[in-house]
């Protein structure tokens, strides 16, 4: 079985090397790819992924299922000279503290972090556009020094950059997920202004993404310490999660929410009876979300193939990007730099 998987992996890599690109396609790479949220979004605009990197084996397998292409492994071991030329670099990179050298902030200060690996690829290839995503706390991490190093690095590498914190529930998916997005345009493109997408007035709630019947059985929570403390009619803002009860002491993974509002942020980690998804009152029963519902809550297409193990699938969607947010931002990139694509 292992030999067959290795053989298939080799064939997929060889196929990727032999791709012939249509001149109408823009090209992109997918770093820290996870299960391919960036790829789902950019391929919907006709983009062609020419390289991807993801070290987690389970995520590689899910990626292979859906894109017939397996990402290369550890980015720190990948020579930037082997990466194909591309127009857009996408990366949802981990947030790490940098060892600040003192007087000089920039590319050299990122050594020893995973952002350095993005920077060395950018320095070598100089793609037209950078599309980066990270947790909201990146902006305040290490008293703002982390974000300062990133911004100064992008400036030193030759990019005008723009950043904003966006909430997923503002873009028609029911999840209160806040992330910072950083867009960079190579300075020779002379783009000095970029506007992030406007907030949608359309409201999507957890109820809208539920399966008729749960696709897995072990999502129900039957315990004597469940308490319902609020009525759903008291919801004021459906774009924010509305807690109506609790399990035990109401700690992490022990809060019960209404399905007639936005859901809480999916998490890759954390414990509690409703770990990773939160608990919801659905048809008079308390339960977690299913992996399929998590896929919908991140805006993945209905035909996206999930990992066969639920606990791994939960983690993967907790780590992923919200596809509709990426799409909305990319529409603005196209408006700002229409040369990247002929039409949406």
Could you write a compact summary of the structure shown?
With 344 residues, the protein is of the alpha/beta class.
> What's the CATH H-level homologous superfamily of the largest domain?
Vaccinia Virus protein VP39
Largest sheet: 6 strands, mixed
Question: Strand percentage, roughly?
Answer: 15-25%
What level of helicity do the residues show? Answer: 25-40%
Identify the strand order in the major beta sheet: 2-1-3-4-6-5
Q: What sort of overall outline do the alpha carbons produce when their principal axes are compared?
A: globular
* Total count of helical runs of at least 4 residues: 8
Structure description:
The protein has 344 residues and is an alpha/beta fold. It is built from eight helices and eleven strands. The protein has helices spanning 2-17, 37-43, 57-67, 114-125, 145-157, 291-297, 310-319, 323-336; strands at 27-31, 48-53, 88-91, 129-135, 159-167, 178-186, 226-228, 243-247, 255-257, 279-282, 285-288. The strands form two sheets. It has a six-stranded mixed β-sheet, with helices on both faces. A five-stranded mixed β-sheet has the order 7-8-9-10-11, with no helix packed on it. Helix 2 crosses helix 8 (323-336) and helix 4 (114-125) runs parallel beside helix 5 (145-157). The longest helix is centred in the N-terminal third of the chain and has 16 residues, at 2-17. The protein starts with a helix and ends in an 8-residue tail after the last helix.
Question: Characteristics of this structure?
Answer:
alpha/beta; five-stranded mixed beta sheet; six-stranded mixed beta sheet; 2 domains; DNA Methylase, Chain A, domain 2; 11 strands; single chain; Rossmann fold; 344 residues; globular
